[in-house]
TrEMBL record:
Its EC number is 4.2.1.40. Residues 177-271 form the Mandelate racemase/muconate lactonizing enzyme C-terminal domain. It comes from Pseudarthrobacter chlorophenolicus (strain ATCC 700700 / DSM 12829 / CIP 107037 / JCM 12360 / KCTC 9906 / NCIMB 13794 / A6) (Arthrobacter chlorophenolicus). Belongs to the mandelate racemase/muconate lactonizing enzyme family. GlucD subfamily. This is glucarate dehydratase. The active site is at K199 (proton acceptor), H326 (proton acceptor). Its cofactor is Mg(2+). PANTHER family: D-GALACTONATE DEHYDRATASE-RELATED (PTHR48080), GLUCARATE DEHYDRATASE (PTHR48080:SF4).
Length: 429
């Protein structure tokens, strides 16, 4: 009689194994240069949050989102609601989070809370199945994701304040066209970007047009964008659109509101883009009716995660709208998620925004996987998001958060410390 050998079948994790057992929400603070925008200037520290989700069988998934005390409260409510749910049940997670959040909260905040957990769940799904997040989203339609150089007017340093010394950085001052061109040259030589976005709304529009013209002269043929974050009236926006005809691939949020944007779009030669007037699915219908925008800047943090961002892409295709990607000050967990979703979204028609050149040196992700080559980031090939958390760095940035006692981003209040008469009333010109 011959003894038969039984090879045990590879064990497949069960629903119980993949149930969420533990969620850690870690607020962090990391350094940021004095970047100027239409409502003030970036503070020396950015408040952000790292989410770690764990399953019964010990898998770990990561998420990242913007911070603030309200966000932390909502994240805690969301985390309580999804304990015990399988990480494959992201629709159920979304429903439970929506039920747990204050009924008065708008679509934007609800989507932001769910998004942080959805990214972590997809990260774990990838580890559990041996797949990348982009594969879970349908697979890549591009192996590398192009980003644009995100330029800001900026001060040379954070001025000395409250007995603390001034904080300098490697970027230097950029307060005029020559400074902006210098900044673009440095950023493009380090990252290789192939398109440029200038954050405007800081100086009178004629000066910002001069900066765009200087960029055009310095970088012939490179696609350019200008984003004054609604600092201009309809009339001023129409004038700027005429002056920049042939110079911009799109003009982003020149004026507030769907109606105002529609009035500008009716006469502008270039497409109008937004991350301010169409920021949730419920805004799309009216935006299309009014012809307010021709390009939507998606952002998985605000559109309810990676799957909903792909759905946004499908809607943009349906209505003949372009799709680009918005960013806020962020680290590598967000960057990895942006890269996976952008790689898996056929409708993406423009290079994505990123603040990473301003903040990436602070990263909580171990180096190696997320690198800019010729302005693009290759899609990580490891399972899930394909990144690894640097726990020492996380602990350091958490300590920094505790020491700083931050509650919310306040670009305007920080500006008023130096320019007391400053107001953030928009449109300004
Ligand atoms: O495209 C945008 O509107 C942004 O990137 C918003 C950001 O808050 C930007 O204005 C900033 O970092 O100051
Ligand atoms: Mg914008």
């Amino acid at each position: 009689m011959t003894a038969s050998t039984t090879v045990p079948a590879p064990s497949t994790p069960t629903a119980t194994d993949l149930a969420i057992t533990d969620i850690t929400i870690t607020p962090i603070a990391f350094s940021d240069p004095p970047l100027l925008n239409a409502v003030g200037v970036h503070e020396p520290l950015v408040h952000r949050v790292v989410i770690e989700v764990r399953t019964a069988n010990g898998l770990l998934g990561l998420g990242e989102c913007s911070g603030g005390s309200t966000r932390l409260k909502n994240l805690a409510a969301g985390a309580n609601a999804i304990k015990g749910v399988s990480i494959f049940e992201t629709s159920r997670m979304e429903q439970l989070i929506n039920q747990a959040l204050d009924p008065g909260l708008g679509a934007f905040e609800r989507a932001a809370v769910f998004s942080a957990f959805e990214v972590a769940a997809l990260d774990i799904q990838g580890h559990a199945t041996g797949r990348t997040v982009s594969e879970l989203l349908g697979g890549t339609v591009r192996d590398e994701v192009p980003f644009s150089a995100y330029l800001f007017y900026k001060w040379a340093e954070h001025p000395a304040l409250d007995g603390k010394p001034a904080i300098t950085d490697d970027w230097g001052e950029a307060l005029d066209p020559a400074g902006i061109v210098r900044q673009a040259q440095k950023m493009i030589s380090e990252y290789g970007f192939k398109s440029i976005k200038l954050k405007g709304g800081v100086f009178p529009p004629a000066q910002e047009i001069e900066a765009i013209q200087a960029l055009r002269d310095a970088f012939p043929g490179m696609p350019l964008r200008l984003d004054p974050n609604t600092a201009w009236t309809v009339e001023t926006s129409r004038w700027v659109a005429r002056e920049t005809e042939g110079l911009l691939e799109y003009l982003e949020d020149p004026t507030p509101g769907l109606e105002g944007m529609g009035e500008v779009a009716a006469t502008a030669a270039m497409p109008l883009a937004t991350n301010m007037c169409v920021v949730a699915f419920e805004h799309i219908r009216r935006g299309v009716e009014l012809g307010s925008v021709q390009v939507i800047l998606g952002d998985h943090h605000y559109w309810g995660g990676l799957r909903h961002t792909r759905e946004l892409g499908a809607i943009c295709e349906t209505f003949g709208l372009g799709l680009s990607m918005h960013s806020n000050s962020h680290l590598g967990i967000s960057l990895a998620a942006m890269v996976h979703v952008a790689a898996a979204t056929p409708a993406l028609t423009y290079a994505c925004d990123t603040h990473y050149p301003w903040n990436g040196h602070n990263d909580v992700v171990k180096p190696g996987t997320l690198r800019f080559v010729d302005g693009s980031v290759r899609v990580p090939t490891g399972t899930g998001l394909g990144i690894e958390l640097d726990r020492e760095k996380l602990a350091e940035l958490h300590r920094q958060y505790l020491d700083a006692r931050m509650t919310a981003r306040d670009d305007t209040g920080y500006m008023q410390r130096f320019v007391p008469e400053y107001t953030a009333d928009l449109p300004r010109w």
